[in-house]
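Case study.
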Amino acid sequence: MAAGFRRYATYRGATLAGAFTNTVFGVIKVSILFAAADAAGGVVVGYDKAALSTYTWVSQGLIAVVWLFGWTTVSERVRSGDVAIDLGRPVHPVLAWLAEDLGRAGQACLVRFVGPLVIGGLLFGLRIPTRPETVPLFLVSALLGVVVSFGGRLLASLAAFWLVDVRGVLTLYVLSSNVLCGLLVPLHFLPGWARAVAYATPFPSVLQTPVDIAGERATGTAALGLVAVQAAWAVALLAVCVWVFGRGTRRLVVQGG
Amino acid sequence: MADRRVWTALLRAGLAGQTAYRASFALELLGAACAVGLDFIEVFAIFTRVPQLAGLSYLEVVLVFAIASTGFATADAVVGQTDAVIQHVRKGTFDVVLLRPLSVLGQLAAADVQLRRLGRVVVSVLLLAVVLVRLDLDWTPGRVVMAVVAPLVATVVFAALFVTAGAVSFWLVEATEVTSALTYGSAYLAEWPTGVLTAVLARFFTFVIPAAFCGYLPALTLLGRSDPGGLPGWLPWASPLVAVLAAGLSGLLWRSGIRHYVGAGG
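After joint prediction, the assembly is written out as follows.
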C-alpha cells in the first residue's frame, strides 16, 4: 500500500494537472446545474444551489480517488505475461493489487480531492454538513467506493486472460460506469426506470453513495443502509475477482524460460 | 510521387494495426458511438426536470450539442492523437518521426487516424440532421450556409485546440493532463449554451478559447435568436475567421514546441 502511495506521489506535476482539469470540468458542470436550478425556480430535484455545488465538487474530487478513468495496470500485466511475477508472490495477486490501489487512492485524497473541493467551495459555495456523523460516515463510504471501483475495474481487466486486446471491453466499461455511478449527472435526475437500472448495478456504490452521504441527502438509517450495500458489493466483487483470476491463470501460457 | 507512397504506407499500416483484432475493434467502434449517447444523457436528464436552460428549449440545446459534437468527433478522429505526442517523446520514438523528411503533424495524423472514433462522427452527423429537420426552420440562404459552415468551423477550432494541446505538452512533459482541460473541457462546454456561464467565463470561452463559436453562436443564428449576454448578431458570421486564426496560432505554437524538443540522447 505504501509502495502504491509513493509511486503515485512521485508525479507531483501530474497530480496538480489532474486536479486542475477536474476543477475546470467542475466549473462547467456546476454552471449547467445552476442554470437548471434557475430554470426550475431555485430548487431542482430537491437540490438547491448549495447542494448542487456540493454534489459537483465532491464528485469531481472523488473521480481520481475511486478512479473512474481507463485502467490498464492489470490488463497490461496479463497481456505481457508479467502476471507470472505476481503469481510468485506470497500474497494473492488480487489482494496485492487492492493494496496498491488503496495506496494510490490515499495519495489522490491529498491534492485531487481537497483541491477541487476547496477551490469550488470558495467560488460557488458548499453545503456545510449539519450532523456530526456525516464526515466519518463519508470517509467509510468513500473507502468502500474505492474497493467497489477496484473490484469492477479488475473484473473488466481480467477479460485479458481470454481476449488478446481488451481495449474495447475497457472502453465500454469506463463509459457505462461514468453514467451509472452518477458522475455525469446526479442519479436522482434520471427517470425512475433508469434509476432502477443504475441501482441494480454496483456503480452507485462507487460515487453516488459517498456523494449523497457528504451532501446529507441520505442520513441516519438510510445512510447506514447504503453503506451496507456498498460493503456487500465490495465483498461480492472481490470474491468474484479471486474466482475469475483462478480460472484465468489455468488458461495462462507465458512464453520464455 | 514518392511522398504519396510514403503517406499511403503510413496510413495503411496505422489502419491495419487498428483493425487487426476484429472483436475488439467492433467494441471500440461501438464505444465511440456510445460516447455521444453518453454525453447526450446529461442533456436529456436535465431536460426531464426543466423546460428550458439559459433561454433555450430542449431541441435548441440539442442543436448546440449536435454542432459541437460533430466538430469535436471529426477533429478527434483526425488529429486527436496529437495531444498524445508526449507518449512518443517518452518512449523515444519521436526521433523517428522527426527524421523522416515529412511534415511531423501530417505523420502523426496519418499514422494515428483513429478509425474507431468514426463511430462518434457518424452518430453526431445523424443527430445534427435529425435535429435540423425537427426544428422546422425557415431555410433562408443564410441559414443553409450557416448549417454547412458551423460543423466545419467547429472541426477546425477543435483540431486547433488538439494541436495546441500537443504543442504545450512539449513544455509540460510531466503535467500533460492540463491539456485535457483545454481539449475535452472546451468540447464539454461547447455542447451547452454558453449562457449558463457567468459573464466573465462566457467571454473567456468566446474570445480566449473560442468554444462558443463551435456550437452556441452558430446555433443562435440558425434559430434566429440573439445572445442574452449581449454579443452582436453578426458575431457568429465571424466564425470562419476565428477558425483560420485558431488554426494559424496553433500551427505556430506547434512549430515552436517541436523546436523546443530535446531528444533523450543515444
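Observations recorded in class. Chain B touches chain A at residues 21, 23-28, 30-32, 34-35, 38-39, 41-42, 45-46, 48-54, 172, 174-178, 180-181, 184-185, 188-189, 192-193, 195-198, 201 (CB under 8 Å). Chain B is about 70% helix and 0% strand. We will return to this complex in the next lecture.
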